[in-house]
Automatic annotation (TrEMBL), chain A:
Keyword Transport attached: no
Top-level taxon in the UniProt lineage: Bacteria
InterPro entries linked: Cyt_c/ubiquinol_Oxase_su3, Cyt_c_oxidase-like_su3, Cyt_c_oxidase_su3-like_sf, Cyt_c_oxidase_su3_a-hlx
Protein name listed in UniProt: Cytochrome c oxidase subunit III
One MF annotation (Gene Ontology) recorded for this entry: cytochrome-c oxidase activity
Transmembrane segments: 35-56, 76-97, 109-128, 148-169, 189-207
Automatic annotation (TrEMBL), chain B:
Pfam families assigned to the protein according to its UniProt record, in alphabetical order: COX1 (PF00115)
Identification of the protein by name: Cytochrome c oxidase subunit I
Source taxon at top rank: Bacteria
Protein family membership: Belongs to the heme-copper respiratory oxidase family.
Keyword vocabulary terms for this entry: Cell membrane, Copper, Electron transport, Heme, Iron, Membrane, Metal-binding, Respiratory chain, Transmembrane, Transmembrane helix, Transport
UniProtKB/TrEMBL annotation, chain C:
Record keyword Transmembrane helix present: yes
Protein name: Cytochrome o ubiquinol oxidase subunit IV
Species: Salinisphaera hydrothermalis (strain C41B8)
Parts of the chain that traverse the membrane: 20-43, 50-70, 82-108
Annotated keywords: Membrane, Transmembrane, Transmembrane helix
Length: 211, 695, 114
């Protein structure tokens, strides 16, 4: 017999068989755990890319372009700064949310959006330079890998920016309903995560590539 | 930016002009076309004749009800099981017909009736379809259908996403069927052997179809995994602690943890391959520093966890069926939980056993060999627990139990051969032989048996009447004998050294065994007819076989039996409170089986929506355009997807309230109907008619 | 909709926002990455020393961000977030580590690949 079946309820009637009304469900918490789970899955996207990167670090084939020629860690600090500041701005937006300050949320989120755009622009500029040097993804396995990792991350940032723009419109139109707040929290998870992933990309691709 | 293609391409039609170069004169494909289109037309005609389109749209296509979504998943899976089976039939007959240099050939083939390129597509489609579009949807269907009720939930955590997952699967099915007639399918095996999948060696669109089919179905699986895990974590009824959760719910959790974390790796493996094929990168090429073993590695990082992804829910089915038909609680619930999670964990550290022969040497091989064998411990625990459940139980050999027993027996055989393959020294001689093929079919048959067990076990729950026992048993025995006749000779052929994926067999000495396999596949064909007949007969006799209480088997144990058959759309009129492992058995033993709650309350439900279908439409267009490299169309489709998502973001009218009075009306009507049936059946003590202590 | 009478701003995941912690995460991230960059280009360390240093710094920055930004802990609100992360991280490192390990041996023994 199962351990829990100790007839505890036999003498105490009536047993509660059906729960009374559950009250207000935690819709925000429910959404956030789901989105967090999705982020775990997304993290494994990068795990696969890093696994491949570990093998392609010196896979130049017949190309004579080496990692240290195309990767400049100091240059990489600029997008790092933009992205981390953008994340900070989103953080401040969520402090404004806590204080029920709609104008503040819109302002900080706008700043976050702008810095995200700057991040992408710097990346585009950096890679446009690579094309000029002939360091295109078709040149060698290493370059295929380098471009792919950086741009899978960049693609995430791009999606985040579209989401943020839509979010800005929604907040200014609808205010802080439960749905909007839940979505705001999910975007916060997504956006903060891009910073964590960028730490890995910067260290593992930029710094290790240059060392 | 894009690669140069062999053959035509223009910006408007993409690669579609290739179709003009193909000759559609193959009767085999013609037959498939007639079958698929004919079948489709019959369905469309029937829907129109009976004026069912509105009903289909309202009740099914736009639904967000987890039970209906589950049923649709299972139907899609069964249809694809049939498609995959047809491929199997072709493989078996081709191999039996193409033995030895003297064997004749027809339809353009030198031997047998399939040309090598065609045969290669057939076995590739067979593997891809069976694993990803037949077994997986059926399993996900059951998880959808049963798990939320087992934990006493009203619905899944995200009903809308649930529908999206289903529709992504349907898009993938649509694409794979399209590939049959529009262009071709991959010929590189379900694993996508590199560098064969590179554009230089596979210049046609087949590999691209294969890529996008898998990518799109993976979206569905990932979305589903998020949903199922969140449901388990957050939606349990009061009292349903983690350790009281039914084992099927636990296996759902374990499986989806695997799915959530391993599918992204497949996504990346295929993304990198896509880049190689579309923009000319060098990930898996032989030149440019590429490394095609990297593909194999990434594929199996997903691939091995995937096989446990499909087997764990099957173990869950067995853990529900065996106790019900042994009339005893499952032996050692906690050990079962630990074993489930242990299997899920170990499944992540064994993938290299699929390429022991790659050349990484004894140190690495030993690690993965030992890790692989470790999985035998928790699996053994499970087998013993089922056995101990049956010992001293009152074992009833009804159809679901037969399937369960067959499944456990197969597990012993398949597990043992897996252990053999896990020894590198043995693997070096058996790798790529049909011994491996027999091993994994043996393993997948466990799943198939458990699935058919689940179909017969939960059928009365979902439809309110039992399946015909007699035909069910015939179906079982035909399927069982088919399995024996196909796969025992296959093991033997593996030992004899026959390699896999042959379109021509040079060794005439293997012919008798191959013919035996054809006999086996004939039994399978018969079993399909038995299955179809069983369903038709059961529907005809549904009045006679109607269930009389919510507990269709009288001895079932979990909460899904604590609601009506079929369950109302809100699952439970009032959320049950859980007091024990096997709550329903606990209630039965304490005479608390009344389904009439002490109060009725308003119920909050999500509204139907057509957004998932619209998303599916755009995704399907995107997939097709990507295969044929019609970039403007792919771009529009992508914009369509983004636009639809943003539309959904701004949609407000997405839920409604069912008033308490309405709930009470539905419940009362149902309870009265059941009362009548119970009274009627006291007189005719039918098989399932024993009176219940219902009220 | 009935449930919007409930004020969503009282939700613990909204309440957990804190400027101090976000600023701390920002500073930690920038400083760690700055030092790591300096270690790589500014000092003449051996490759393995460099790797050790930048790995340590990345771990500090990453963990710092995880805790300061996401507020992961064992509270009722966040427990499942924490558990799922703790379960995913080993898989992450297993996938990367075991791959590099096997390809290292493969390269040694077959001279295939970089
Ligand atoms: C749980 C259910 C299982 C399923 C669904 C399954 C499925 C498969 C599949 C699909 C393949 C070959 C794929 C291919 O090359 O096309 C395979 C190969 C293999 N399986 Fe299993 N398997 C299962 C359990 C096991 C177990 C328990 C073991 C060992 C303890 C095992 C050991 C192996 C090995 C070593 C190979 C590689 C053989 C080779 O290619 O040389 N499998 N299995
Ligand atoms: Cu395996």
């Amino acid at each position: 017999m199962s351990r829990h079946d100790n007839n505890r309820y036999r003498d105490r009637s009536p047993v509660t068989l059906w729960a009374p009304d559950a009250g207000h469900p935690d819709a925000i918490g429910l959404r956030s755990i789901g989105f967090w789970l999705y982020m775990m899955s997304d993290a494994m996207i990068f795990a696969a890319l890093f696994a491949a990167h570990g093998v392609y670090t010196h896979a130049y084939g017949t190309s004579d372009i080496t990692a240290s020629q195309v990767i400049d860690p100091v240059e990489g600090l600029l997008p790092t700064l933009f992205l981390f500041t953008s994340v900070l701005m989103y953080g401040l937006a969520s402090v404004a949310l806590k204080n029920d300050d709609r104008a503040g949320v819109v302002r900080w989120m706008g700043a976050s959006l702008g810095l995200g755009v700057l991040f992408l622009l710097v990346e585009v500029w950096e890679f446009a330079g690579l094309v000029g040097e002939g360091a295109v993804p078709q040149a060698s396995a290493f370059l295929s890998d380098f471009w792919t990792i950086v741009w899978v991350h960049g693609g995430h940032v791009f999606v985040g920016l579209i989401w943020m723009a839509a979010m800005l419109i929604q907040i200014s139109r609808e205010g802080f309903t439960e749905t909007v707040v839940g979505r705001f929290i999910n975007l916060r998870i997504f956006w903060f995560f891009q910073a964590v992933i960028w730490v890995c990309v910067y260290t593992y691709v930029y710094l290790m590539g240059a060392s | 930016m894009f690669v140069d293609l062999q053959g035509p391409w223009n910006w408007f039609w993409g690669r579609l002009p290739l179709l003009l170069q193909l000759h559609y004169n193959n009767p085999v494909i013609g037959f498939a076309f007639v079958l698929a289109v004919g079948g489709g037309l019959v369905v469309v005609a029937a829907l129109t004749y009976f004026k069912l389109w509105g009903w289909l749209w309202r009740e099914w296509l736009t639904t967000v009800d987890h039970k209906k979504i589950g049923v649709m998943y299972i139907i899609v899976g069964l249809v694809m099981l049939f498609r995959g089976f047809f491929d199997a039939l072709m493989i078996r007959t081709q191999q039996a017909a193409a033995v030895g240099p003297d064997s004749p050939g027809i339809l353009g083939a030198t031997h047998g009736y399939l040309t090598p390129y065609h045969m290669d597509q057939v076995f590739t489609a067979h593997g891809t379809i069976m694993i990803l579009l037949a077994v997986t949807p059926m399993l996900v269907g059951f998880m959808n259908l049963i798990m939320p009720i087992q934990i006493g939930a009203r619905d899944m955590a995200y009903p809308f996403l649930n529908a999206v997952g289903l529709w992504m699967t349907i898009v993938a099915v649509g694409l794979v069927m399209a590939s049959l007639f529009i262009g071709d399918f991959s010929h590189a095996g379900w694993v996508g052997l590199t560098p064969l999948t590179q554009l230089a060696h596979s210049p046609s669109v087949g590999v691209d179809y294969w890529i996008w089919v898998i990518q799109i179905s993976s979206i569905g699986t990932t979305v589903g995994a998020v949903n199922l895990i969140a449901t388990i974590l957050k939606m349990r009824a009061p009292g349903m602690t983690l350790m009281r959760m039914p084992i099927f719910t636990w296996t759902t959790l374990g499986t989806n943890i695997i799915g959530l974390t391993s599918f992204p790796v497949l996504t990346i493996a295929l993304l990198l391959l896509t880049l190689d094929r579309y923009v000319g990168t060098h990930f898996f090429t032989a030149d440019g520093g590429g490394n095609f073993m990297m593909y194999t590695n990434l594929f199996w990082i997903w691939g091995h966890p995937e096989v446990y992804f499909v087997v764990l829910p099957a173990f869950g089915f067995l853990s529900e069926i065996v106790p019900t038909f042994s009339e005893k609680p499952l032996f050692n619930h906690n050990a079962m939980i630990v074993a489930t999670m242990a299997i899920a964990g170990v499944s992540w550290a064994v993938w290299l056993h699929h390429f022991f022969i790659m050349g990484q040497g004894p140190v690495v091989n030993t690690f993965f060999s030992i890790a692989t064998m470790l999985v035998g411990i928790p699996t053994g625990v499970k087998v013993f627990n089922w056995a101990f459940t049956m010992i001293k139980g009152r074992v009833r050999l009804e159809t679901p139990m037969l399937w369960a027993l067959g499944s456990i027996l197969l597990l012993i055989g398949g597990g043992a051969t897996g252990m053999m393959l896990a020894i590198p020294a043995i693997n070096y001689v058996s790798h790529n032989s049909v011994f491996v093929v027999a091993h994994f079919h043996n393993m997948f048959l466990i799943i198939a048996f458990a699935l058919f067990g689940a179909v017969s076990f939960w059928w009365p729950k979902v439809f309110g009447f039992h399946l015909d026992e007699k035909l069910g048993k015939i179906f079982f025995w035909l399927f069982w004998s088919g399995s024996v006749f196909v796969f025992v000779p296959m093991y033997a052929l593996g030992f004899l050294g026959m390699t896999r994926r042959l379109d021509y067999i040079a060794h005439p000495g293997w012919w008798p065994l191959l013919l035996l396999e054809v006999f086996g596949i004939g039994l399978y064909v018969a079993s399909i007819f038995a299955f179809l007949l069983q369903i038709v007969v059961s529907i005809r006799d549904r009045k006679k076989n109607a269930v009389v209480t919510s507990d269709a088997w009288q001895t079932s144990r979990n909460l899904e039996w604590a609601t009506h058959c079929p369950p109302p759309f809100y699952n439970f009129a009032a959320t049950p409170v859980v007091h024990s492992i096997d709550e329903w058995a606990w209630r039965r033993e304490h005479g608390l089986t009344s389904l009439k709650p002490d109060h009725y309350a308003d119920i909050h439900m999500p509204k139907n929506t057509m957004v998932p279908i619209v998303l599916a439409f755009f995704t399907g267009v995107f997939g097709f355009a990507a295969v044929w490299r019609v970039w403007w169309l792919a771009g529009f489709a992508l914009l369509g997807v983004i636009g639809t998502l943003i539309f959904r973001m701004f949609q407000k009218d997405i839920d409604y309230i069912v008033p308490a009075s309405e709930v009470e009306r539905i419940e009362t009507a149902y309870l009265e109907k059941m009362d009548d049936r119970a009274h009627a059946s006291i007189h005719q003590t039918g098989e399932h008619g024993s009176p219940a202590t219902q009220h | 909709m009935a449930h919007d009478e409930h004020n969503p701003l009282t939700h613990p995941e909204v309440r957990s926002a804190s400027s101090a912690m976000y600023i701390a995460a920002f500073v930690l991230g920038i400083v760690a990455m700055g030092i790591a960059c300096l270690v790589t280009v500014g000092f003449d360390l051996s490759q393995s020393d460099t790797l050790t240093w930048i790995t340590v710094l990345a771990v500090i920055a990453g963990l710092g961000q995880l805790f300061l930004l996401f507020k992961l802990d064992l509270s009722k609100t966040m427990i499942w977030h924490t558990v799922s992360l703790v379960l995913t991280v080993p898989l992450f490192f297993m996938a990367v580590g075991l791959t590099i390990w096997m390809f290292h041996y493969l390269a040694l023994r077959t001279m295939v690949g970089g």
